Amino acid sequence: MSNRDVAVSFVQAFCYGDINALEAVLAEEFSLRGPLFDFHSKSDYIESLRADGMDRGECEILGMVGANEVVAVFYSYRKPTSVTTVAQMFWFVDGQISKTLLEFDPKGI
Description:
By secondary structure, the chain is an alpha+beta fold. It has one domain: Nuclear Transport Factor 2, Chain: A, CATH 3.10.450. The protein is 29% helix and 45% strand. The protein has helices at 3-16, 19-25, 42-52; strands spanning 26-33, 38-39, 58-66, 70-79, 82-93, 96-103. Strands 2-1-6-5-4-3 form a six-stranded mixed sheet. A hairpin with a 2-residue loop joins β4 (70-79) and β5 (82-93). The chain is globular, with a radius of gyration of 13 Å.
């Protein structure tokens, strides 16, 4: 899979609430920074998702840029009571996501 494909897989897995699919595309040295949380390891991120549970939603990919070590995906994330537009950048190492920067308006969730 290309890095673009992996980024889309992450977005879809997150939106659909598939923690196992998320875990499969993350590097061990994973970090995430966003408006609500910062994680500095794959295990902390996955444990948090499992502890809090994930709402099943839907996503629509609005656009993408990048193709090599950095890919940005722009998408709408729909849950039963809300829709949020998200911009997310992904950095890759050996075909896995090593870092992501997540931007959205937290009032929309």
